[in-house]
Amino acid sequence: MLARYITPRIVAVGLSGEVLLLSALYMPSAFGWTPRFRVTEALVMTVAGILAFGIALLLSLEVAAEFRQARWSYLAWMMLAANAAISLVKRSAGSPLFDFVTAGYRTSPLRGLLDNLLVVPANVCLLIGLLAMWWGYHKLGLGFRIEWRDRGAMAGVAALFLMLLLFRGSLSQGQSPYLISRALQPLGLTLLAVISTFGVVLHRYAVRMGDGKLALVMRWLMFYVLLRGVLVLARSFLSPGRPLLLDSPPGLEDWAFDVLWQVVQWTAAMAAAYCAQLPVSAAQQLKQLRAARPSVVRAQQPA
Amino acid sequence: MQDHSLPRRRSGREKSSISFDVTSDMKHGISELEWNDYLDGPGTVELRDRIEAHMIGCLECWQLYERLSDATRELVEASEEARSGLPLEDRRMHAMLRGIFSRIRSGPTKSHIEGRLNLLEGVLTPFCGSQAALSALHAAAQKSPARSLDRVTPDNWAPFLENLSAIATAMCGATFAGLIRESGQL
Q: What is the ipTM of this complex?
């Protein structure tokens, strides 16, 4: 089992390691002590992104295999694995390293097209996964109901995205020569809005699950789902004049957004790592139970 | 005329008043030990002939014999009465033991079920949280023939556990469901 080796601690080391490394590369240049190590930064971001989504993909597949007997949970984690796989390809195709090969690649219509061709199916997979998870829990009849205040919060999140789509001047692909790119970008944003509303549902599940291990899975999934929406909304409101992308172009964006988008990738890996630990912990307890059972039987037998 | 008939059965209080006037070692050539042997039966033929030959002509010894034999008979009756009381105690003890063993053989009791439910809740809680663990137990009971958690008995335990395993599978996977299944074995 891969989960025995790739634990949440390992993923946390990866996440904090990347943030620290990017900080160590950026800070000296921010203070004017050194030039900006853009190639190294791009390399770190690309490798870390591939690593994070790679971990998320492999662990999600492992988790899905564990849920093979539970149809909806299986579908949910297979869809999350598909989301990680597509995001991995998107991360590779959108690597800032290409900027050093092809000038202006990151803001080019071609990259926009590739991005949207991948973002939409990735978001569709994520949405199906979240819907399957919600329906699976709903069918269990555990009383995980979405309350009125949750619905209010979901409506609030949806309204924010609606405002963004309706009142913002133009999207980054609004002037793209590719029709499919122009059509897919609003669709991708709409999907992102719907997915972000599910962050509220995941939060409710996490609250209901209290201090259980499953609550951690829900919380990290919630971070993954919400953080993307929050970053898109934040950049839109903070920099309304700039074209809207689903991730931040380095030429336009400040370093913090870059780092936060990197964190998003690790949150997906973290959710999968915590969920993959469930069978590992269960197997350990099962082993202890089986080891203790013969001694119990012996103790019950008459001397 | 002297009454040689055996006295009627006396009450318990009268029993305590029986006294043997055989304090001396030897009376009319018959010792206390010889009287005992004669009355209890193990005496020899020679002893029996000697005592009986003497009693035919000795009223005092005859009366002594009557008193002793009467007392011996009463002692035997009393011991039989006491013995007849003891088997009743034995039967009671046997019945109690049979109850214990039949309970052991018949399987888990209500308290055993409660203990097992607590154990299952203890296994579920670290994974699903306390609230969800309790919800899972209630949901499993509701879908089982028990219909509610407080009606779960050894008779409907198997479908309850199966439902709980299905919930555990959907929440935390097949390995965790296996843990629930094995922890819930009665």
A: 0.85
